[in-house]
Structure to design on (692 residues):
């Protein structure tokens, strides 16, 4: 009898040796005459344990990690195939507290199934949401998404149901679904993991969106830094077409919907939705002024739903299990779950899906185990490069859109980047300005010129050149960028800069008094 | 061969018969002509075939897709992925995103620049190794992250980076 062994194909797992482990296991098992079947699953999200190898022992999956190719022979000697004890063994995967304490809805199948096995997908609840959606009217589907409270996971948190309603109500025969898979924020990788580990969930969410608003074509705008996701998505799309899911007659419904993957080309700004649309049209990714809303005049001027990977990836659950089930999670006006990503200087980095309202402390300390270096936490940046820096004193903030906004921060895409006490906050503030000048689309002067000036002025401050005068200049620049930028690139870059100055003035050679006066 | 020299004038390429590069670029562009807004896809195709965008790209693609040269040039220059000269044999790309900075990315970049003797964005004199910065590979829990010869690696220390570059160089000399 063959023993099934799971080794992730996730690109983070591959980055720390998963392919080498798979090769070593195949060779070593063959040498010993052991009959093994290797499945390349998605990652469970316990990234610090990658490569995380699971063995199916009479229906129970037993986990080992982090495994290196060198460990394989020893593991087999110890009795890997029977789930025997070993220094790297973590026991039954479903009982690992780090996973068991999560509430995985969007990520329900992550790491569990073979990402490209449609039978496996359906055996784990896949396509139930789409089948329910087919039985509803378009308005019925939009109502379900609206009632779930689902908000955009790409950053701004706009209610998905309201966006879909606008597109449904817009006149016109040609409409589009555009999935924003640009995931440019440093510290975020949950879109990538879902696309690599459970791509059918994204395709199902997009198909439901298409049926809901009357769109027949979907595009996934994927950043070029994710070639593995590209290959897996393209394969998944072919499989879905072959199955009669994508194409002219979606699961026998008589409705048409198809999806193509389009690649970005290394521009952070193309994650901004209007810039993304221009890029999808084959142009420079220039930000468009709003109105018109993309929902009314989006791709090629047609009504378009633009949603993030995780927004669309949460839709199948809503349609399968009901809006109430989704809305029963979360806090206040932030309903449902968020797929938080622990990154940076963190001991147990990875993905934690929980209802909104969980505190930063629970995520960073309980799940994350504090810093990887073992040193004290100095600063935490939530929500990507445009998010404010928080201090260790703010760890009790609950992750919830409005609470974070009130604290001058943002939940954004749920990325949490931890820095220890060796972090140089003046350098990170300078980097924020440098990044903005590097990635600005160039349309507005405050963003384009302001960020370049910002770098120079921070350099002067840290060099001790008229600190007080240059601080005033820097804060003025921040004001101009905040007020005079067309989009959040220029508009929010002052957030990390200002928070670094006000919370860590000593890194700029300033005193607390100097920065408040 | 007078035909051929024509194709060497920037923007002057028109005789595909005499210029196989121009002919290929044209064929690639034509294969996507029916798609909506295909310019980015066409440029990706050309770059994946040649490793960079040959000089004839702008005029030929502009002609096939019925765009102005300025439009095509504008797109090529907007996106950092597109390059107008051949890449190094071994590309070393180091992530400078905040999450990787939190675990030593800046020191890794400095180390790479020093040990290769080149700056970010440059190639070694013999064109064997090029150093680039990237903003995030989506490997932010297992940084520092670097890609060497197209493969992404996590938890890259300076010593590991040197070893990876050496391995890649040994590999490329062996073939
Ligand atoms: C500079 C900038 C970069 C952005 N990058 C992304 C991104 O990488 N992915 C994403 O989904 N949204 C990104 N957004 C947000 C999008 O503009 C848009 O709000 C989102 O795609 C809408 O989908 P959602 O409502 O499902 O979140 C970015 C916004 C700005 C201003
Ligand atoms: S703020 Fe910056 S990125 Fe946004 S539109 Fe203006 S120039 Fe472009
Ligand atoms: S910040 Fe380096 S991989 Fe994301």
């Amino acid at each position: 009898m063959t023993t099934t062994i799971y080794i992730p194909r996730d690109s983070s797992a591959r980055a720390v040796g998963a392919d080498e482990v798979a090769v070593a296991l195949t060779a070593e098992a063959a040498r010993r005459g052991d009959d093994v079947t290797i499945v390349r699953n998605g990652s469970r999200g316990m990234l610090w344990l990658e490569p995380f190898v699971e063995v199916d022992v009479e229906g129970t999956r037993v986990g080992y990690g982090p495994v290196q190719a060198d460990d394989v022979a020893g593991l087999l000697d110890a009795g890997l195939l029977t789930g025997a004890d070993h220094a790297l063994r973590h026991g039954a995967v479903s009982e690992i507290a780090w996973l068991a304490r999560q509430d995985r809805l969007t990520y329900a199948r992550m790491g569990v199934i073979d990402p490209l096995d449609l039978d496996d997908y359906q055996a784990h609840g896949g396509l139930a949401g789409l089948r329910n959606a087919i039985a509803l009217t378009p308005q019925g589907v939009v109502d379900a998404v609206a009632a779930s409270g689902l908000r955009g996971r790409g950053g701004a948190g706009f209610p998905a149901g309201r966006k879909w309603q606008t597109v449904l109500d817009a006149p016109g025969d040609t409409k589009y679904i555009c999935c924003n898979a640009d995931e440019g924020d440093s510290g975020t990788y949950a879109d990538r993991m879902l696309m690599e580990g459970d791509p059918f969930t994204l395709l199902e969410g997009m198909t439901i969106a298409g049926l809901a608003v009357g769109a027949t074509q979907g595009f996934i705008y994927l950043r070029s830094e994710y070639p593995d996701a590209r290959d897996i998505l393209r394969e998944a799309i072919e499989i879905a077409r072959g199955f009669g899911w994508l194409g002219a007659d979606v699961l026998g419904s008589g409705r048409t919907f198809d999806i193509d993957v389009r690649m970005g080309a290394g521009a952070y700004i193309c994650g901004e939705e209007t810039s993304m649309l221009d890029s999808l049209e084959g142009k420079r990714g220039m930000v468009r002024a709003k109105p018109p809303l993309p929902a009314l005049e989006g791709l090629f001027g047609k009504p378009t739903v633009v949603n993030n990977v995780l927004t669309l990836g949460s839709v199948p659950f809503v349609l399968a299990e009901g809006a109430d089930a989704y809305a029963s999670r979360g806090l206040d006006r932030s309903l449902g779950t968020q797929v938080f990503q622990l990154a940076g200087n963190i001991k147990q980095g990875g993905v934690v899906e929980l209802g909104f309202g969980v505190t930063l402390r629970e995520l960073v300390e309980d799940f994350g185990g504090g810093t990887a270096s073992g040193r004290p936490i100095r600063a935490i940046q939530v929500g990507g490069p445009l998010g404010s820096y928080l201090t260790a004193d703010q760890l009790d903030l609950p992750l919830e859109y409005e609470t974070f906004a009130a604290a001058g921060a943002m939940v954004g895409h749920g990325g949490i980047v931890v820095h220890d006490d060796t972090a140089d906050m003046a350098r990170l503030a300078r980097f924020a300005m440098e990044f903005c000048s590097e990635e600005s689309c160039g349309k507005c002067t405050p963003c384009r010129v302001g960020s370049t000036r910002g770098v120079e002025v921070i350099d002067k401050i840290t060099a001790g050149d008229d600190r007080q005068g240059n601080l005033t200049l820097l804060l003025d620049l921040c004001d101009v960028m905040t007020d005079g930028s067309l989009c959040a690139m220029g508009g929010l870059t002052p957030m990390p800069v200002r928070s670094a100055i006000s919370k860590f003035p000593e890194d700029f050679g300033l005193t607390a008094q100097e920065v408040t006066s | 061969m007078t035909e051929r020299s024509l194709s060497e004038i920037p923007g002057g390429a028109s005789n595909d018969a005499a210029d196989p590069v121009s002919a290929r670029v044209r064929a690639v562009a034509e294969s996507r002509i029916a798609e909506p807004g295909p310019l980015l896809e066409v440029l990706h195709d050309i770059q994946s075939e040649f490793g960079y965008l040959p000089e004839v790209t702008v005029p030929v693609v502009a002609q096939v897709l019925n765009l102005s040269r300025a439009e095509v040039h504008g797109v090529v220059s907007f996106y950092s992925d597109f390059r107008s000269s051949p890449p190094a044999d071994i590309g070393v790309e180091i992530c400078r995103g905040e999450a990787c900075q939190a675990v030593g990315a800046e020191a890794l970049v400095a180390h790479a620049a020093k040990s290769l003797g080149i700056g970010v964005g440059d190639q070694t004199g013999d064109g064997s190794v090029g150093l680039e910065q990237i903003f995030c590979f989506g490997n932010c829990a297992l940084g520092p992250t670097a890609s060497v010869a197209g493969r992404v690696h996590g938890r890259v220390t300076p010593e590991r980076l040197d070893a990876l570059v050496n391995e890649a160089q040994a590999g490329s000399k062996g073939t």
Notes: Residues A 186; B 95, 97, 99-100, 136-140, 143, 145 surround FE2/S2 (inorganic) cluster (ligand 3) (CB under 6 Å). The longest helix of chain B spans residues 158-174.
